[in-house]
Amino acid sequence: MNEPCKAWALMTESAVYLQPAFILQQRKYRETSLIIDVLTRDFGRISLLAKGVRKTKSKTAGMLQPFIPLLISYFGKAELKTLTDVERRACSRQASGIHSIPGDCRAGSVPAGGIHSIPGDIIQPFSEIKGLALYCGFYINELVGYFLHKYDPHPEVFGHYGECLLCLSDGSNMEAALRQFELSLMECAGYGLQLAYDENESPIESLKKYVFNVGKGAVEVVDGPYSGKTLLALNSRELTDPQVLSEAKILMRTVIDVYLQGRQLKSRAVINKVFATAQRLDQ
Asked: Do 181 and 215 sit in the same domain of this protein?
């Protein structure tokens, strides 16, 4: 391929070429293959069969890891497509607003260290996202898997996903990055939150307290768990105040849990375990 840095895709009746993508998860298939769940820019979330990539001499397996910006080509009319080619996307910022992750294009990158208990049958990723940020990366991957239907294009989610990975990779305010992505994903999936007005259509006031009813909105109460300041900050995406971040985390967890309808996020359980272990070590 002569132009690997272009973020564009050609499509025939049954084939797609050079589609920008990120791998969300993977599982082993038969002796030498993988089935990978992929977020693509123009075709949404898809499943691909990567034949023979687990063979000893395979040059592809090292690229088929989460959090690496890729260009993929595949074909097939069935729901499970077949991967035909993969290459790393350039590390420059794309004109479309999608950000590649710094360092991912360097040859000889090494696996993130210290990660041995990633939930599910996921092969250890090659990425500059490390430590707690790595778990956060798997968290947003799970959210995408739950909230986006397969083959439903959401180019805007692809952009927000790349932005979130960029923040996780450089360690810049991970909590704010996660809240930004959660809000954007909810909105794009049709679950946007009304944060500027309460359920009676009265403007939210920063000094007042509220409860939040998912699907209806905020209700003013004297001892509510959320300040108007937090709701307005979420609405404007200005997430820098520690109190706002603390309340926003609880609010977004509540909202997401309602829409998950009892389904559990494996990555959240792992993150909680990491925090619990860290607290015990600090005592």
From this structure: no
- My answer on whether 158 and 50 are in the same domain is yes
Query: Is the pLDDT confidence value at 8 over 70?
Result: no
State the residue range of the domain holding 247: 209-282
Q: Count the domains in the chain.
A: 2
> Does residue 93 carry a pLDDT above 80?
no
Question: Measuring CA to CA, how many Å separate 112 from each of 126, 199, 206, 247, 276?
Answer: 6, 46, 42, 31, 22
Q: How confident is the model at residue 283 (pLDDT cuts 50, 70, 90)?
A: low
Clarify whether residues 166 and 225 are in a common domain: no
Cβ 275 vs Cβ 250: under 8 Å: no
Q: Is 186 left (phi over 0), alpha (psi -120 to 50) or beta?
A: alpha
Amino acid at 13: E
DSSP for residue 93: P
Lowest mean pLDDT among 58-72, 83-97, 102-116: 102-116
- How crowded is residue 233: how many other Cβ atoms within 10 Å of its Cβ? 23
Q: How far apart are the first and last CA of the chain?
A: 56
- Which amino acid belongs to residue 71? L
Alpha helices per DSSP H over 94-241: 131-147, 155-170, 174-188, 228-236
Check: CB of residue 63 under 8 Å from CB of residue 88.
yes
List, for residues 150-166, the tens digit of each pLDDT value: 999 999 999 999 999 99
Q: How far apart (Å, rounded) are the C-alpha atoms in residues 71 and 88?
A: 6
Task: Encode pLDDT of 40-80 as tens digits.
Answer: 999 999 999 999 999 988 888 788 999 999 999 999 988 99
3-state secondary structure (DSSP) of residue 212: strand
User: Given strand 209-213, what is the order of strands in its sheet?
Assistant: 217-220, 209-213, 226-227
Vertex 262 angle, CA 260 and 264, to 5°: 80
State pTM to two decimals: 0.81
Please state whether beta strands 80-88 and 44-50 pair in parallel, antiparallel, or not at all (unpaired).
parallel
